[in-house]
């Protein structure tokens, strides 16, 4: 499943050069991941099972500057499921400009909130995540 989140660039997102500050992209990407989890119904499932996703690595490429007034379309999807981690791919496009502002690969680990330790991705958890890849 690919999810789309829209964010309008505001003045407080900009740096001294009048384009979106690099650190803001991390916030935009996080907003899009939360939207994805909410819309898929996973956020309730993970809460019920006392599981949480933590980020262990982010690789981000900045491509084209986004400026005030731009509408950003952030596309989010799972791309890989491993034994203890998964990879989420995200792309930030500038609507109406046929331009990619940034793209990222985010590696996440599923954490047991009771023990604070990573869990193996197997069984119902693995099936649930694999559905996201199958729907892409």
TrEMBL record:
SUPFAM superfamilies, alphabetically? Thioesterase/thiol ester dehydrase-isomerase (SSF54637)
| Name of one Pfam family that matches | 4HBT_2
Q: Which UniProt keywords apply?
A: Hydrolase
Write out the transmembrane intervals: none
Q: Which domain of life is it from?
A: Bacteria
Q: Does the keyword Hydrolase apply?
A: yes
GO molecular function per UniProt: fatty acyl-CoA hydrolase activity
Q: Does the keyword Hydrolase apply?
A: yes
State the similarity comment.
Belongs to the 4-hydroxybenzoyl-CoA thioesterase family.
Protein name as annotated? Thioesterase-3
Question: What organism does the UniProt record list as the source?
Answer: Arsukibacterium tuosuense
State the organism's lineage: Bacteria, Pseudomonadati, Pseudomonadota, Gammaproteobacteria, Chromatiales
């Amino acid at each position: 499943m690919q999810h789309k989140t829209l964010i309008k660039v505001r003045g407080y997102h900009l740096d001294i050069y009048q384009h979106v500050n690099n650190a803001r992209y991390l916030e935009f990407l996080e907003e899009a991941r939360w939207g994805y989890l909410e819309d898929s119904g996973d956020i309730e499932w993970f809460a019920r099972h006392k599981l949480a996703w933590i980020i262990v690595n982010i690789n981000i490429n900045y491509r084209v500057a986004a400026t005030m007034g731009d509408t950003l379309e952030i596309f989010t999807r799972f791309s890989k499921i491993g034994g203890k981690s998964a990879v989420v791919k995200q792309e930030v496009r500038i609507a109406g400009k046929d331009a990619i502002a940034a793209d990222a690969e985010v590696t996440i680990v599923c954490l047991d909130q009771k023990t604070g330790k990573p869990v193996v991705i197997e069984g119902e958890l693995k099936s649930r995540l694999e559905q996201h890849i199958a729907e892409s």
